[in-house]
Amino acid sequence: MLRSHTCGELSLSNVNQEVTLCGWVDSIRNLGSLVFVDLRDKYGITQLNISPKLFDKYVIKNEYCISVTGIVNKRSNPNKNIRTGLIEINVKKIQVFSQSELPPFEIKDDVNASEDLRLEYRYLDLRRPKMIKYLQIRNDINKYTREFLYKNGFEEIDTPTLIKSTPEGARDYLVPSRIYPGSFYALPQSPQIYKQILMISSWDRYFQIAHCYRDEDQRADRQPEFLQIDCEMSFCNRDDVLEIIEGLLKYLFKKIKKVNLSDFTRISYEEAITKYGSDKPDLRYELFLHDVTSILDNCGFNAFKGKKVNALVIPQVGETLSRKEMDEDNTLAKKYGVYGVSHLKYQNKEFTGSIVKNINPEKLKELAKKLKVKENDVVIICADNKNEKSCIGLGALRCYYGKKLNLIKKNDYKPLFVLNFPLFEKTDDGKYVSLSNPFTRMLDEDIKYLDTTPEKCHSYSYDTVLNGVELSSGALRIYDSEVQKKVFKLLGLSDEDINTRFGFFVDALKYGVPPEGGFGIGVERLAMELSDTDNIRDVIAFPKNLKAFEPMSKCPSPVDKKDIDILGLEIKKQDDK
Amino acid sequence: MLRSHTCGELSLSNVNQEVTLCGWVDSIRNLGSLVFVDLRDKYGITQLNISPKLFDKYVIKNEYCISVTGIVNKRSNPNKNIRTGLIEINVKKIQVFSQSELPPFEIKDDVNASEDLRLEYRYLDLRRPKMIKYLQIRNDINKYTREFLYKNGFEEIDTPTLIKSTPEGARDYLVPSRIYPGSFYALPQSPQIYKQILMISSWDRYFQIAHCYRDEDQRADRQPEFLQIDCEMSFCNRDDVLEIIEGLLKYLFKKIKKVNLSDFTRISYEEAITKYGSDKPDLRYELFLHDVTSILDNCGFNAFKGKKVNALVIPQVGETLSRKEMDEDNTLAKKYGVYGVSHLKYQNKEFTGSIVKNINPEKLKELAKKLKVKENDVVIICADNKNEKSCIGLGALRCYYGKKLNLIKKNDYKPLFVLNFPLFEKTDDGKYVSLSNPFTRMLDEDIKYLDTTPEKCHSYSYDTVLNGVELSSGALRIYDSEVQKKVFKLLGLSDEDINTRFGFFVDALKYGVPPEGGFGIGVERLAMELSDTDNIRDVIAFPKNLKAFEPMSKCPSPVDKKDIDILGLEIKKQDDK
Question: Fewer beta carbons below 10 Å: N end or C end of chain B?
Answer without folding.
Answer: C
